[in-house]
Amino acid sequence: MRFVVLLSLLALVLTACGGSSVAERVASAEMAFAAEDVASSRRICDRIMGEDVSDGGVTATELCRLSILYMQLYDRTDDADALDLATRCYRSAFSENADSARYFYTHLPVDQDKYVMSLSTLVQSIDNPAGVDCDYEDTDSVLVADSVKNCK
Description:
The chain is mostly helical.
């Protein structure tokens, strides 16, 4: 129990420091989530999305990490806003650097594959609703998001 409290406090201290990088704050959010501190993890993620994404200060990899965190938060809390933010991060990651995003999503631990598959399917279904005829040459779920933007 002390370990969980210590990790939560460490995450909050790291995010409170104004000079911490986005990568450090994402790591803090991941640590808070791992320590079962869902509220702190969500607060850190929301702060990054509010402050840094609009400034263009978030890399594709950081956006990928945020998308997975938001999916985990959605899985834990069933908060639709977390799902919306996850899809936003997913799309933004591919817009920022498709190669980095593709690499990140294809090299996740097996236990996180379900989040990528869900995100890919969700984004594909939103961007290409039923009745829209698109032929995808690549059936890999991560790569489908890349081809979504080319569908007319």
